[in-house]
Structure to design on (336 residues):
């Protein structure tokens, strides 16, 4: 997962890079969790108190790393494993897809946290520590068509726990912005959810469409341009008509090329929010890194909604801790 979108998307590199690992942990870890997606992976060593002791990241995602998953993981976190008592290593994201380390089938919605944990599969051991892959979820989108996710399921349960910890009310719906946005109905279980290709469409349009001629490709935070894009998305004509206005506003001199990227971003994000939020004044949980989360907060407020932001790293870690609690309990019951 997960995954950045819009002007926050990082450019892809051709050669995998694994961040040099530290020489060891400052204190004992009780869990290691790894968010392993198509382009990147991020690993976190979590201490007894639930805090992050150390972290590492790499661009050795599935696209650039086929078949060397065990070696890649060892290179990345090997120094974290030099402790006597065994711990679990939880992997989530596209690593469990058919093109990943080992296919872990999607669990059919509705899915509760215990069900998700029960379907996790151990794939190997590293220095006596068991490596697990957490399954994704399959269900039905807002259109009634099939939908799937890998990675956001852990963040969903983690974000819910964080809301409780903050004594904040649960949102009406959760939004996970990224290359492929996920919108998940709030509740104890994962039930209905929908995917929107927001980040991917943005990148295709900015790089490979006619609109690229009306865009300055340098990333900038131009809030007025973004807000104009949101407003355009509320007009008549539909998404395809609105997208062409990126070009026509440039040709007529009504918009500078430097405003084009954020204007385009506003159009796409505005349309996605409008399509997913059918009721007025919705309370939305946004799970994303800070820059992207702030952008969605601005968009939601401009369109008449409110939001609570949960940092994606915190959601991943808290969700992994919840899964680990169930795995440890199952191990104790089985006497393993």
């Amino acid at each position: 997962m997960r995954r950045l979108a819009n002007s926050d998307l990082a450019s892809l590199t051709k050669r995998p890079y694994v961040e040099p690992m530290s020489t060891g942990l400052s204190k004992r870890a009780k869990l290691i969790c790894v968010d392993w997606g198509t382009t990147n992976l991020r690993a976190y060593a979590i201490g007894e108190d639930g805090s992050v002791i150390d972290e590492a990241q790499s661009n050795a995602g599935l696209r650039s790393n086929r078949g060397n998953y065990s070696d890649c993981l060892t290179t990345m976190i090997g120094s974290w494993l030099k402790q006597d008592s065994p711990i679990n290593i939880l992997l989530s994201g596209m690593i469990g897809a058919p093109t990943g380390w080992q296919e872990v089938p999607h669990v059919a919605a509705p899915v509760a946290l215990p069900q998700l944990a029960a379907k996790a599969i151990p794939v190997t051991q590293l220095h006596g520590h068991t490596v697990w892959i957490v399954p994704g979820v399959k269900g039905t989108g807002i259109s009634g068509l099939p939908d799937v996710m890998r990675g956001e399921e852990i963040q969903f349960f983690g974000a819910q726990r964080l809301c409780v910890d903050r004594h904040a009310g649960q949102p009406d719906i959760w939004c996970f912005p990224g290359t492929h946005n996920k919108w998940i109905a709030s509740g104890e279980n994962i039930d209905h959810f929908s995917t929107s290709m927001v980040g991917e469409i943005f990148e295709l349009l900015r790089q490979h469409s006619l609109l690229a001629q009306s865009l300055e490709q340098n990333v900038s935070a131009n809030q007025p341009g973004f807000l104009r894009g949101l407003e355009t998305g509320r007009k008549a004509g539909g998404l395809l008509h609105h997208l062409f206005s990126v070009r026509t506003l440039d040709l007529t001199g009504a918009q500078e090329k430097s405003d084009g990227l954020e204007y385009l971003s506003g159009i796409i994000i505005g349309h996605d929010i409008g399509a997913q939020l059918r009721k007025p004044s919705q309370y939305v949980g946004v799970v994303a890194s800070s820059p992207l989360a702030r952008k969605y907060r601005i968009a939601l407020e401009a369109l008449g909604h409110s939001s609570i932001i949960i940092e994606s790293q915190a959601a991943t870690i808290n969700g992994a801790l919840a899964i680990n609690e169930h795995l440890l309990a199952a191990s104790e019951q089985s006497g393993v």
In short: Residues 1-18 have pLDDT under 50 and may be disordered. Residues 161 and 167 are 10 Å apart (CA to CA).
